[in-house]
Task: structure prediction
Amino acid sequence: MRALTPVITLEADAPATGAVVPAFAWALARDIRIAFRSRAELGVQVLFYVIVVTLFPLSTVPERSLLATLGPGVLWVAALLASLLSLPRLFAADFADGTLEQMALSPWPLPAIVSGKIAAHWLTSGLPVVVLAPLLGMQYALDMTALWTLTLGLLLGTPILSLLGAIGAALTLGLRGSGALLALLVLPLTVPVLIFGAGAVDAVRAGLGAGANFSLLAAGLLIALVGAPLAAAAAVRIALD
Amino acid sequence: MLEAHDLAGERGHARLFFNVAFRVEPGRALAVTGANGSGKTTLLRILAGLTAPAEGSVHLDGAPMKPFDARLREAVAFGGHLPALKDELSAIENLESLTALAGARVSRAELAEALDRVALSRRQMLPARVLSQGQRRRIGLARLRVLRKPLWILDEPATALDQEGTALFGAMLVEHLEGGGAAVVATHQPIDLPPGRMAMLAIEACAR
Result:
């Protein structure tokens, strides 16, 4: 009897599965390098986030309890908008200049390349949001525990925003008015992230602990990590057809 | 090496061509000609595996190919009419990035030599933003040279190239064919190749 060979074919990429790491590393390094060559764009995003977060305390009653209630939600919405602002850049530039074509035709698996691009997107748009969160949260009279809960929640949640956003960005490639359409597609999907992320701070302030919220965010992150690159890669291929 | 069986191509529900069949052997090139909008680009995209044909099939070394087939991606160097260059990166960085993406391991010295061959060595550190259209095309030629893929599928490679650049492309193509490579090239300009190396495929305007 012949030995059975295990056949695992997620897609036609099977022979190149060994190339996942170089493909990921290539896309990550390249996109970060390009992002730093156009630093102005990066600055605009971060500044946008800072300004949106700062506008709320200025435009509402400066009452500590009200601000502390509003704060986590405002920071999460601002993080979402900042992520959304930079999403069109994820694939559109590569689509316009033909690089996306070459990526899809590369012997490397496309989902790995897409993962690298998403990682670069998070590092350049999500990570600054996380790092600035404790500082900006202070405007909302949040105490130390609430600030750390908020930041940890953002650390788990912002990668989900990048991952889900990548699917939307790939689906809207080549469409007219894709920016607005992208927002309409992605925003509803991010509602659970927003609820559990902002809810974590409320739970801590109510003395319940944020364990459940963090577990749900982490589970969501794992699902998105596995599913989103595959979905985005499939959408990229459809867009190229 | 590459075979097309009864290919038909559509673009936005309009039938562009049908019953296209040919075989390209190693050492041979196929020049695809036809009026604007006749479907040259669509044919090349089908051959490269970017688009599914409306009818028919593409075979590589006898095996039928699906779009984005791994074997096709391994064998083909595709040069579309978009140059795939990033304005933010320099000429040599662009070349390095594209060769890595195509799965080729090429040393910096080889990349510099390839840019030298296409007369861009003095501009290799300039960002692609400041290069002319012709110079951008030349980076594409340098890429073909370092990739060493057996099958070239090129869409209008000589566009925006000057006389010297066109001659350079011709010489590179001959070199590629003599080395046992094959090529499918969509073109408006005639390409000078030794007799017996090239076949012509003219796509006529489709009646429907």
Q: What stands out?
A: The mean pLDDT of chain B is 88. The interface with chain A takes residues 48-52, 66-71, 73-74, 76, 78, 80-86, 88-89, 93, 97-98, 100-103 of chain B (CB under 8 Å). The domain at 2-203 of chain B is CATH 3.40.50.300 (Rossmann fold).
